[in-house]
Amino acid sequence: MLLEQTWRWFGPGDRVTLRDAKEAGAVGIVTALHELPQGEVWSVEAITKRQSEVRAAGLEWTVVESLEVTERIKTRAPGWPKDIESFAQSVRNLASCGIRTIAYNWMPLFSWMRTNLHAPAPKGGYTTRFDALAFAAFDLYMLKRAHAEEEWGEDASRAAYKYFRQLSPAEADTLRATILHGLPGGHRQLTIEETSEMLRSYEGVSRDELRGSLGEFLQTVGPVAEEYGVRLCIHPDDPPRPLLGLPRVVSTAKDLRWILDQYPGDANSLTLCTGALGVRADNDLRAMVTEFAPRIGFLHLRSTEREQNSVAGMESFFEATHLEGDADLIGIMIEVVREKHRRELHGDDRSLPFRADHGQELLNDTERGASPAYPAVGRLRGLAELRGAFMMAERLIMKVEQECRIP
Q1: Which stretches are annotated as coiled coil (predicted)?
Q2: pLDDT (tens digit per residue) in 274-297
Q3: Domain annotation for the chain: domains and CATH numbers
Q4: Fewer beta carbons within 10 Å, N or C terminal of the chain?
């Protein structure tokens, strides 16, 4: 089995080019038809056009990230069965073009959340950061969401008000724009008014109902993916806590077990993101990799570092370099290589794609103006570190196996 080195690319407008990806050592490209609206079928013509662009650079499009799930599907709003069929047809079309690893997520409204996209990193360069107090200030005093104060509690609300009052107009504008930025490479950046309106579409949607929609989605599209040999790999919540009064259902090991039970087999798989899951101290990442290894279809390898200023149970954190921070990526890679050997023993020769997820802005990254968290040099460093760590883990495990076979 090949551990396939991949690189996320946001399409022809990405400031980090396919040539950069190839020179960094990637062989597979992770991308999507970001220009298409949510819910639209990805046609074979559009897929093959993007494939041709990637192949012209000497690379192969091997992973879709992301085939978006509409909010109508998540909330079962009118029109959701049509959206599920559009998703299923896109799965069929991708498979017919030879692309059989598809990442998606089940996060309401926002597919990630940060409060600073250009924070100074501890050892130089810049990184992305989530400050729970800044987020509370946005929720309470910019968005002015109903019931936010009772959810945050009196102490957090007072601290957030003090933080908010100290912001200059320019700082407040930057915080607002950062939170409403949306997924890098996406086509949507919300306003305060649009966010409030979309939040209203989730009124009355409980955690159990959001899970129920996910279960129904998997039971509907799972057979399609199974028929076409596709792995649907759900991404964890980022960060793995409820946001803006919206439930999160892909945050813990218990959540992942429930999801994998909804449809058996490899068609229902995981995008195991060590950065997103690692924000919570109660997530044992190495144990999760060990438990879920057979159902991991795609690996996002990065590390976050928790800060001390948590607010009302919500962690503050920043993106650390790949081999530092709170995620034990060396230990995780050892478990991944063990799974590689297990699959090889059982004759599974399919590749397991991984990518150096996110990266700090280093050297001339700031001049290039790439998508937030996706610089060239920072990711090149991350992929090089991961490549070396995988080689180390491979040799270590082979040595142990050889010693165990000695009489």
Answers
A1: none
A2: 999 999 999 999 999 999 999 999
A3: 3-113+206-308+319-405 (3.20.20.150)
A4: C
